[in-house]
Design brief:
The complex is a heterodimer.
Chain A lengths: L6 H11 L3 H30 L4 H21 L3 H8 L1 H4 L2 H14 L5 H8 L1 H27 L6
Chain B lengths: L1 H5 L2 H24 L4 H18 L1 H9 L1 H4 L2 H19 L1 H29 L8
Helix pairs in contact in B: 3-6, 6-7
Classes of the chains: A mainly alpha, B mainly alpha.
């Protein structure tokens, strides 16, 4: 192997040696961590259903439990470590939503419990709720328009 | 542990694979685009609401269960489904009440646990 003398050579060497490998590794980690979180959700869902809850209620219980766990893991600084390793694997499941509420809130704790924690909680969650809720209203309105004309839409 | 005997392992596998793949889509967006995580979350919720409204996401939920409902697309799907069902029941008002009603548990839990967890969190002082 040729010795590497300049930064440029080193850069070329790195580019040659590691084509796409970080993204493949990231995707693999995201895949199994994300899959695992969903599987935990599925197990909770099955337990709820076996206790006689309906689907809607079971889904709500799953969300509440997963959100609760990840909120406290974030508070204990453990979620960041999972997040660094898993990337989207912990961001995309509903755990990421809870994490996005707690981490900015923690950071701005010094600004007080109302305008610090209370308002910074929604730095990321706010937009998510705005777009999610707006989209649901639009879907509802569109459904109403089409449904009254007896066009089967869903 | 009777739920272990009743566990549908194929269902769990489908859940794992679909949930994992949805996360891989997010990972590709993170690595290949300059979108911030906040934007990706917004995109996923909105996409879930649109796919839910079109009735496409329902197939994924039937197929993968929690694999489709636990990712944030499922949150959007839940909002859209709630809005549609409320419109069927109470018309125009339902479009406004249905979404949040269906997702109320998740939103309330996120606000409540989020606030409590922030309060008990050790303030890690890092100067930026």
């Amino acid at each position: 192997m040729k010795p590497i003398n300049t930064t440029q050579e080193y850069q070329n060497y790195v580019d040659k040696k590691s084509p796409n490998s970080p993204i493949l590794k990231n995707c693999f980690n995201a895949f199994w961590v994300g899959g695992l979180i969903c599987s935990i959700g599925q197990i909770i869902l099955n337990i709820c259903k076996s206790r006689g809850m309906d689907t809607q209620m079971s889904g709500t219980v799953v969300s509440i439990i997963l959100i609760g766990i990840s909120a406290f893991l974030t508070g204990l600084n453990l979620f960041n470590k999972i997040g660094k390793f898993a990337g989207a694997g912990s961001l995309i499941p509903i755990t990421g939503f809870a994490n996005s509420i707690v981490s900015p809130a923690m950071e701005y704790k010094s600004e007080g419990y109302v305008m610090g924690v209370g308002s910074k909680m929604f730095t990321v969650a706010g937009p998510v709720l705005v777009f999610g809720i707006s989209a649901s209203i639009i879907v509802g309105l569109i459904f109403m328009i089409f449904n009254t004309q007896n066009i089967t839409f869903v | 542990m009777e739920f272990l005997q009743n566990m549908d392992w194929m269902q769990l596998l489908r859940c794992f694979v679909v949930g994992g793949l949805i996360c891989v889509v997010g990972q590709i967006l993170i690595d290949k685009t300059k979108l911030t995580p906040a934007r990706i979350l917004v995109i996923f919720v909105t996409a879930g609401a649109i796919l839910g409204g079109l009735g496409i996401y329902q197939y994924l939920v039937d197929f993968a269960g929690a694999g489709a409902t636990v990712p944030l697309t499922g949150f959007g799907y839940n909002l859209a489904k709630g809005a549609i069902e409320a419109v069927k029941e109470s018309g125009l008002v339902g479009a406004f009440t249905g979404g949040i009603k269906a997702a109320a548990g998740g939103i309330a839990a996120a606000v409540f646990f989020g606030y409590i967890a922030s309060l008990i969190a050790k303030p890690k002082m890092k100067k930026q």
